[in-house]
Amino acid sequence: xxxxxxxxxxxxLSVTGFSTPFFGVSWNPPPNKRKIARHLITFLEDRxxxxxxxxxxxxxxxxxxxxxxxxxxxxxxxxxxxxxxxVEPLRAMRAACRKYLDATDPHARRIHHPYGGDFLxxxxxxxxxxxxxxxxARVCVAYGIDVxxxxxxxxxxxxxxxx
Length: 163
What we know:
The chain has helices spanning about 10-15, 30-45, 60-80, 85-105, 115-145, 150; strands at about 5, 145-150. The radius of gyration is 17 Å and the shape is globular. The protein contains six helices and two strands, in the order E-H-H-H-H-H-E-H. About 55% of the residues lie in helices and about 0% in strands. It has one domain (about 5-155).
């Protein structure tokens, strides 16, 4: 089964309200930055925790995946100059990973929610997906990168009347 790609141009139509590092359609990112961004997207396209339905995910496996994502983001940050346009989205996504891990750590939970742990995991995962969706959409648009449909499912949606 062939996975469908979502064009960065389609993402650009649905993402509004943020600045990008280019001015006009003719901007081309430097090849090394685009290569780093492409590596990130390729890595994340295989992370089910970012797009699978919540009821199909299992807490400990999601946590393991989030740890791997955080590690990969840290490795990518090590290769980026500190003034690079990729640093802000990478740091925001890494912070979202830390927040998820803090919120779902069974040893650190001081407040017990009446709906139990499943609600806590789904809520924390939803917040992480929201942060990732916004920042990954920005990266895809800025660097002209197509993305698989599953990962694009967490990108911000546009009001159909705005199109």
